[in-house]
From TrEMBL:
Record GO cellular component, one term: membrane
UniProt keyword list: c-di-GMP, Membrane, Transmembrane, Transmembrane helix
Protein name as annotated: cyclic-guanylate-specific phosphodiesterase
Gene Ontology terms for molecular function: cyclic-guanylate-specific phosphodiesterase activity
The organism's taxonomic lineage, starting at the top: Bacteria, Pseudomonadati, Pseudomonadota, Gammaproteobacteria, Oceanospirillales
Amino acid sequence: EAKRQRDGKPRLFRQAQEDELEERLSLERELRLAIDHDELCLYLQPQVDEAGNIIGAEALVRWQHPERGMISPGHFIPIAEETGLILPLGHWVIQEGCRVLGEWRNIPALQGLQLSLNVSVRQFQQPDFADQVLSVIQQHDVPPERLTLELTESLLLSDPDGTIEKMQQLQRAGVSFALDDFGTGYSSLAYLKVLPLDTLKIDIAFVRDLALGMQATPIAATIIALAQSLGLRVVAEGVETNDQRLVLAQLGCHIYQGFLFGRPLPVDAFLRTIVEDARASLPHK
Ligand code: C2E
Ligand code: MG
Ligand code: MG
Ligand code: MG
C-alpha cells in the first residue's frame, strides 16, 4: 500500500509539490537579478495587412537565462505579477520598446510601422503609469503615434474610472490602445464603448478552429462584427494557416499576426527581414 505522510498526501506527490515550490522560488530570485544582468530581451512578431505588408509588430519579452536557456513569458510573467517584479520588468519593456522605436525613426523602410507593447494590469494601475510612459517617449524622442499599448479586459474589473482616465491622458498625447486576448476575459460591452480603444485583438483560441467550408466559429464572427460596429480595428492573433486567413478575411478581419506570417524574432533579425523585403520590392534597375 502507498505510504502516506501525515497530511494524507502520497509522498511522491508531496515531493513534486516541494520541487515545484523550490523551482518557483529560485526563478523568482533569479528574475530579480535578470533585469540588472541584462538577461531580458524583446522579440518582435510582424502584423500584416491583407496584401501581406508588414504594418506593425508586437514586442514579446524573452528571458535569456544563463543556465536554463530561453524562458518564455508564459513561465515568468505570472511569477513577476505575483511578486510585484512586473513593475520593474514592465518598465524595462517600455524603455526598451521606446529605445527601438527611437532607432527606427531614421530608417526609411520602417516609416509608419507601429510597435505594440504588452502592459500588465498591475503595471497599468500604478497611479503615475501614464506619466512614466510619456517621459520615456520623450527621452527617446519617439513619435507617440507609433506606439500601441496592449491591455487586457481584466483591467476593467477593479478600477474602470482610473483606467479610462489614464488611457485618455495617453491617447491625447497620441498613443493607441489595443484590447488583447479579446473574448477570453470579463468584458462589459458598455465599457467597450467608452474606452478610448483603437483595436480589438481576437484571441488565438477563436482563430484556432477556423477552417474553410466549416461554419466559422460564431465567436470570431461576433468579435469582428462588434469591432466593426464600434469603429475599431481588429487584429487576429495566432494565424497559422492560409485557410484561417481566408476565413478571417471573409468575416471582415484584415490584419493578421501569427506563424503564417512570421514567428517572433530578435529585434535585429526582424529588422533585417523588413529591410530585405523593402529592397526586394524596389523596381529593378
Ligand atoms: P499575447 O500578448 O497574447 O501574445 C501572443 C502570443 O501568441 C505570443 O506568445 C506569441 O509568440 C504567440 N503566437 C503568435 N503567433 C502564434 C501562432 O501562430 N501560433 C501560436 N501557437 N502562438 C502564436 P509569447 O511570446 O509566449 O507570449 C505569451 C504571453 O506573455 C503574451 O500573450 C502576453 O500576455 C505575455 N507577454 C509577452 N511579453 C510581455 C511583456 O512584455 N509584458 C507583459 N506584461 N506580458 C507579456
Ligand atoms: Mg499581446
Ligand atoms: Mg493576445
Ligand atoms: Mg494570448
